[in-house]
Design brief:
CATH architecture: Alpha Horseshoe
Radius of gyration: 14 Å
Number of domains: 1
Strand content: under 5%
Order of helices and strands: HHHHHH
Helix content: over 70%
Structural class: mainly alpha
CATH topology: Serine Threonine Protein Phosphatase 5, Tetratricopeptide repeat
Length: 110
């Protein structure tokens, strides 16, 4: 079984496939409990799919899960940015523009 620390280490080493598996194992085992752990795991999954594995659909799923938690941290801000970039690249500008301003204010400054 994977630990959060192991998943974070794999992420830092840019071992994307292994990090995704480790984070998903931690989530399935109920090891992702605190907001910090959720933020690290969900962002790590989004970033691994987005940047490392070039799977934007999976990245959007994990970035959205993190954004929906409304955790006030830099990983949520980065998830908003990355999600907006994916949507912009898909020419889904209306969706990208609507999401970011509303969430930035509500999540980060309330």
């Amino acid at each position: 079984m994977s630990s959060i620390a192991e998943a974070d280490r794999l992420y830092e080493e840019e071992k994307w496939t292994e990090a995704v598996s480790a984070y998903k194992n931690c989530i399935a085992a109920g090891l992702v409990l605190t907001n910090e752990q959720k933020s690290n795991a969900f962002f790590g999954l989004g970033y691994a799919h987005h940047t490392g594995l070039k799977q934007p659909d999976a990245a959007l799923e994990w970035y959205s899960k993190l954004i929906d938690l409304k955790i006030k941290d830099c990983k949520t801000a980065a998830a908003l940015n990355n999600r907006g970039n994916i949507l912009r690249n898909r020419k889904e500008l209306a969706t990208a523009i609507i999401i970011d301003p509303l969430h930035w204010k509500r999540i980060l400054w309330n």
